[in-house]
Each structure stands twice: as structure tokens, then as C-alpha cells.
Write a structure and sequence with these properties.
Layout lengths: L11 H19 L4 H39 L3 H13 L4 H12 L19 H7 L11 H18 L4 H9 L7 H15 L1
Length: 196
Amino acid sequence: MIGLPALGGHMLRPRLTAVSFLAVLVACAAGEGSWEAEVNGLRAEVGRLTGELGLANIELHRLRKLVRYSGHYRIPADLASLIWDVSLAQGIDPALAYALVQVESGFDSFAVSRAGAVGLTQVMPRTAALLEPGVTYSELFDSATNLRLGLRHLRNLLEKTGGDTTAGLLKYNGCVRAPGCQSYADMVLGRVSARE
């Protein structure tokens, strides 16, 4: 990796510009080859390095968010990273995913409800089997598997409700019209709001 990504690349640009300029001067002074070819080569290199810097900045943004979520929810960084990555892969806002997992299981991978829901997202085994035929009960305790299936299920419900987060959460919880159902959605959404 080139430069210091932790500094957001602030020191990288002046260095690249100076190096590029010196390389052009040396090439021109030596009279070797076409200076235009050298300039084009340097432009390509600067473009490549700019792309790398952009990727480094994206990763820096991700890491800053992970540190915040890890600290806020008091969870290990690897779990914060897993929730972040799986939620984005499943098309779910990470803030919603963290809040859902906190409400559902308190970030306990081995949680089992009285109704039989398991793991971080408290996915029901029969729902998981519909989403991924062949998945075993024991696999639902694997954090990555559980998050993938639970968040896919949430995404499907959000799509069915036209993107209505409250309605999607109520369906996820398995109660739509029963008394007290709204409090579940309020708990999850309240945690999302607290993070924003």
C-alpha cells in the first residue's frame, strides 16, 4: 500500500506530484525516448495511484464506522465487521442490522428463543430452510450463516412491504396486528435513531 491511508492521503498528493515532476525532468534531460510517452506513462501511474487512494479512503471510512459500532454496542470488532459486511451484501442498512441483532439476541450467537428462533438474528429454522435449502440447525449458530439468512429474510419482507421498515420489522417479528407488536418495531427503530 502506498502512502499513509490513516492520514487520508493528505501527504501522498504532494509527494506524487513532486516525484512525477522530477521523473519528467530526468526523462527530458536524458533525452531518452519521447517525453510525451513518459508524461502519458506518469499520468497513467497517477491515475492508478489515485484509484488506490480512493479505495483506501473507502476502507478508512468503513473502519471508522466499525470502530464506532463496536464501541457503541460493546461488541468485538470482528463481529461488528461481519454485521457491516453481511448487511451491505444483503442490501440492508448496517444501522438497522446492528439494531435488529441487538434487539433479537443481544449479539449472542447461541441465543435460542422459546419459540425456537436461533442465533444472532433469531431466525426460525423453517424460514432458514426456505431461504437456503439444506441448511442445518447447527449451521444457524454460525454468525455469518445466521446473519446472511436473517438479513436476507428481512430484505425480502421489506421488499414485500414496499420498503416500509416498520411493517417489515413487524412481519420479521411474526406479529402484525397483535397488541404490543408496535413496541418491537419501536425498539429496533429507536436504536437506529440513537446511532444516527
